[in-house]
Amino acid sequence: MKIEDISVQQYINAFGSVELTDLEKKLIVANYDFPEYTITSKQMAEHVNFAGMGASNLYYGTMSKKFCEYFGIDTDPYVGIFCWFEKRDKGGLWILRPNVVLALEKIGWVTPKVEWNNAIQEIEDYKNTDAFNIDETERDAVIKSRVGQGRFRTNLIEMWGECSVTGCQVIDILKASHIKPWRFSTNAERLDPYNGLLLLPNLDALFDLGLISFKDSGEILISKRLSYSTLYMLHMNSDMRLQKIDKGHLPYLKFHRENIFKS
């Protein structure tokens, strides 16, 4: 098994099976609490009141090793099971993997700090990360993409020219929606038109909430949480599908189905 193949449910099972100390739990929750789920070794040490980075690195590494053994994965460093890791100033920068974020939220170890549609808070978190330190023009485009505006929306209009599902051509009412949520995307993914759909407002809301998704063939997936009467009122049915699909959409749709869709 590769780390990238570990699903949210498998992480949930691991958190329920691997014996962790209160301190170890505190470390991974700290990783979640920082802006965009990104924390440095120094911040980690300060957050748990350690005298230096060495102790936090050691304890986080020990906890991570338990999970590597649980999954039968050999990775260096061990924290790779939870994070993307970058060496930084004699310490490290730990960026929590999206599936770990979602698992922590679903098992109740953390209170979700961002509502799906809370663009203001997500943007404020973004300003406190290294990803914010890019060319001003690019940064403006990334921020505007969170609210479905700017270059991201323009590119989606050029790509689709109508609602991605219904074919409605009243462009002014259509929403530019990220497939892989903005909060889990890199700057490049936030601007990638293949990571977007142009949707009517009701479809946009349902998609963001994970109440609908799409197969690689474009066929719609509808959550069992939506009743027949609700679908009728929303003028929705199981025959709906994406008007077209490109291979560039596939990894983003896979992420949405596996991590956002509520079957």
Describe this structure in words.
- This protein is mainly alpha-helical and 263 residues long.
- The chain folds into 2 domains: 3-107, Arc Repressor Mutant, subunit A, CATH 1.10.10; 122-259, no CATH class.
- Helix content is 44%, strand content 11%.
- The protein is built from 12 helices and 7 strands.
- The strands form 3 sheets. A 3-stranded antiparallel sheet has the order 1-3-2. Strands 4-5 form a two-stranded antiparallel sheet. Strands 6-7 form a two-stranded antiparallel ribbon.
- A hairpin with a 5-residue loop joins strand 6 (212-214) and strand 7.
- The two termini are 24 Å apart.
Low-confidence stretches: none
The total count of strands amounts to 7
What is the strand content? 5-15%
Q: Number of folding domains?
A: 2
Q: Can you list the strand order of the major beta sheet?
A: 1-3-2
Q: In DSSP terms, counting alpha (H) and pi (I) runs of 4 or more, how many helices?
A: 12
Spell the H/E element sequence: HHEHHEEHHHHEHEHEEHH
| Whole-angstrom Rg | 20 Å
Overall pLDDT confidence: 87
Shape: globular
